[in-house]
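Changelog note: in this version the structure field was regenerated for every chain. One regenerated record is shown below for reference.
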Amino acid sequence: MNTADSNTGFKVWGVDNMVYGPVELPTLIEWVKDERVTPNTWIYSETDEQWRKAPKVPEISLFFRQRTAAVSATEAASGSEAAQFTTGALRRVKIFSEFDDQQLTRFIAFMEVLRLQQWTEIVKQGDEGDAMFLILEGEVRVRLLIGGKETTLATLNAGEFFGEISLFDSGPRSADAVANRDVVLLKITAQSFEQVVHQAPDLAAPFLFAIGKTLTARIRADNKRYRDSVAFARTAGVAK
């Protein structure tokens, strides 16, 4: 295989199922550094006319090896990170607002901390749901990609949560969730929550009650938006 120079063209298969490029190697490297190109991104090289996953492209594989080493080091150090959060930090999440310090300390043992960079795709529409996420810091965009175009369903901030249905149903995700900014998340898997239910039901009950209150508020807001849109449509129809 010929070695590519800076003028070699590369095409990138985006998360929106659009092909971008061709771009030259320096641009591709910048996209890798910005994490616009991830390990799951398909890259086409005009040098040998082949599509490969990004880590398998020789010209940029080094960047992914370095990133993997950094992630491994972070994971090794983060095993006890969740336990190091103060109870005050955990109360940034609204559903923990009624928990006392002892309950928070016990509950955090069932969760893990994720620190993700801006533009990271946290969950993907259609993937099996296996965890719920609570936002400690940052902002998350919930979106749908339809016909290659993005529709934003909601923008969630620190204190909010998403993916809660996965605690009860492992069906496919109904939308993507993307980090609008660098985020710090708490993740609780369906398996971990099942352990909470069996090992600490006194924690599971207030947690579920708090989720229920939040979902009720969301349903009421959605109903109001629906009523308003119907009223507007009827008014517009009369005006015609």
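Spot check on this record: The chain has six helices and twelve strands. Confidence is low (pLDDT under 50) at residues 1-6, 73-80.
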